[in-house]
Amino acid sequence: MKALPSIDPTLPSDRCPERVWYTSYGSNTHLDRLAAYLKGGRPPGAGREYPGCRDPAMPARSVPVELTGAMYFATESAVWGGGRAFYDPDADGRVLARAHLVTSGQFADIAAQEMYRPPAGDLDLAEVLTRGRAVLGDGRYETLVCAGQVEGLPVLTFTAPWGMSDVPWVAPSAAYVRFLAAGLLSAGAWDTDAVASYVASCPGADGHWSSRAVAALLGSGTDGERPPGRP
């Protein structure tokens, strides 16, 4: 298994980096899913076509990381059906994630597409790199978070402006769980049992998905329906 890079919690000194670690904790942990954001297209199981980034290159590297905080599922995804993944950096726990080395422009374009907007321009990262957080709007993925740095480059992600306990939790769909879990598994730092137990324990999934059901979905190679209840 791959070793986890250590995230230095110190905020980086460069406020205008050319490259950043876009850190995904949801379905973009999967490189095929991320490719739709970068190159354009529709990933299997999704209900939306993506325009892609101005620079369609795949990440220079992708590494497994763990963030401090918690992942939970909430709201209703028009793309997948079921709940979306969100990150609460203020909650207790750990979040399994995958950091993709991309340009700052690609990070801005991915963030725009998460909000159903066409890629149009770069983001001013000065505030998030100075304070660790920047609220760009009240949209579900318009709050930027910097968890620190790896190899001198910022570890950046985006989430909602609310906290984990501020919204109802919603169970994620089978297609969404499969992309998320398969992406974590392919990162090479966690085995099937670890990934399945983690996903099944996240608020929104807990009580709807068991670790056995998540593991079965990973092994099925399909986007089948979620097994009812806990097997």
Based on the model shown, name its key terms.
two-stranded antiparallel sheet, 231 residues, alpha+beta, 26% helix
Oligomer classification? single chain
Strand order of the largest sheet: 2-5-1-8-7-6
Strand percent estimate: 15-25%
Round the Cα radius of gyration to an integer and report it. 16 Å
Flag low-confidence runs: 222-231
Q: What is the overall number of helices?
A: 6
Q: Termini distance? A: 29 Å
Overall structural class, as computed from helix and strand content, comes to alpha+beta
SSE string, helix = H, strand = E?
Answer: EHEEEEHHEEEHHH
Rough outline? globular
Quick one: how many beta strands? 8
Arithmetic mean of pLDDT:
92
Q: What's the main sheet like?
A: 6 strands, mixed
Approximately how much helix is present in the residues? 25-40%
Report what the structure shows:
The chain is of the alpha+beta class. It has six helices and eight strands. The strands form two sheets. Strands 2-5-1-8-7-6 form a six-stranded mixed beta sheet. It has a two-stranded antiparallel sheet with strand order 3-4. A hairpin with a 7-residue loop joins strand 6 (133-135) and strand 7. Helix 4 (174-186) packs across helix 5 and helix 5 crosses helix 6. The chain is globular and about 45 Å long. The relative contact order is 0.21.
